[in-house]
Amino acid sequence: MAALAALFYVCAWAVDAVSADRIVVGLALDLSGPDAIRGREARNALLLEMGRINRRGVAGGRIFLLTLDTKGSPAGTAAAVRELARKHKAVAVIGPVEHFAAIAAAEAAQQERLPLFSLSAPEEILVPAKRWVFSTSRPASLPVRLILGHLKSRGIKRAAMLGSSLGYGTEGREQITALAPDFGVSILLNESFKPDENNFLPFLKRASLRGVGGFVLWARGVSRLGLVHAHSALGLKMPLYISYVSPGMFGSQSRSKSAESVVFPASWITAAHLLPESHPAKTDLTAYREAYLKTYKSTPGETAAAAVDALRILAWSARGVGASRTRIPMGVEGARYFMGLNGTYGFSKNDHNGLGADSLVLVRVRKGKWELVKGAK
């Protein structure tokens, strides 16, 4: 398939894995489309982790990563999964990172009877659990519950919600609408914005006029900075919650004024430097962050952590039950307590994600620095 040319990445320490005993793991990632930044982050994380895993070996062989660029297209992602299954005989696929692409990948994986470890977690692919589909990313319900719980603890009963029109934002809006009543919170405004939107003042003004006590943004990309600056420009007192923040974002003194008191859920890897030394994953998180930073000159985020966890869980399963497509799902479902970089997974036959509320912490910006919000659950 010309549009899906295979991109082979073989590092010096993995050259001898390209042999008869190689275990082919496919990567279906966006490397040149709208989510290419996260796709490349996942690929980099996996290449780094492959070396560590192959030094130990897996089920009599060594892992060989074969990457197909999906260009971020759901159709291209489904085609990549099928090509990896049929032509390249992959034992499993890791990816993609985008919402709708993950839905397409899950459907293709089910048809091909090929284990898929998605780096996105749409509810549609997880509920009910599908035999061949797993995810190491956090479902939207987890950060939604954390934010709503904090609103409740502050006595805020009226909130506004703004989400991107893309799949990630749409699911966040749906989840907060469904779960808000459980926390005694009324969502007075629930609106979406297009990807090219750069004026967030009208959204905030409407929320202010309705008298809401908190404002929630569900999005990725530059829109987060745009909303933060608009919130500061209006001098609004209502707290601002953001669903996802990249490592280091809002963490400089130059941004402290506009980002002051912004609150957001953060994964273990993103907030590793804030976790206490007693945290059970602290050593692993610190070591991986340092290795990634040394190799790629950047800090790994949640996408990198999800990718690493997917490969670790896959390797753990293969060591236990064998590196075959049919056996891997059974092995993963037996991972009832698997501590990764993104949290502790409790997989089962009916839960193919396994992450719980303890996989996130709530963070607030104070004077240009991050700090944990105490008592947040």
How are the secondary structure elements laid out?
Layout: E1 6-8, E2 22-29, H1 36-56, E3 62-69, H2 74-86, E4 92-94, H3 99-112, E5 116-118, H4 123-126, E6 133-135, H5 141-153, E7 158-164, H6 167-179, E8 186-193, H7 201-209, E9 214-218, H8 223-233, E10 240-242, H9 256-259, E11 263-267, H10 282-296, H11 302-321, H12 328-333, E12 338-339, E13 344-345, E14 360-366, E15 369-372
Parallel strand pairs: 2-3, 2-4, 4-5, 5-6, 7-8, 7-9, 9-10
Antiparallel strand pairs: 1-3, 11-14, 12-13, 14-15
Helix pairs in contact: 1-11, 2-3, 5-6
Quote the beta fraction: 15-25%
**Helical element count?**
12
Q: How widely separated are the two ends? A: 48 Å
Number of strand elements: 15
Structural class of the secondary structure composition? alpha/beta
Task: Please tell me the overall pLDDT.
Answer: 91
Classify the helix fraction into a percent range.
25-40%
Write down the Rg. Answer: 21 Å
The largest β sheet comes out as: 6 strands, mixed
Strand order of the largest sheet: 1-3-2-4-5-6
- N to C succession of SSEs: EEHEHEHEHEHEHEHEHEHEHHHEEEE
Shape: globular
Low-confidence stretches: 1-20
